[in-house]
Write a structure and sequence with these properties.
single chain, about 85% helix
Length: about 20
């Protein structure tokens, strides 16, 4: 398991939410 991938995925979701706002 790669924690870096999961971390990047979570950051990506946050960025999408911010863009939607």
């Amino acid at each position: 398991m790669e924690n870096a991938t999961l971390f990047r995925f979570m950051l990506n979701l946050r960025n999408v939410q911010v863009d939607n706002l």
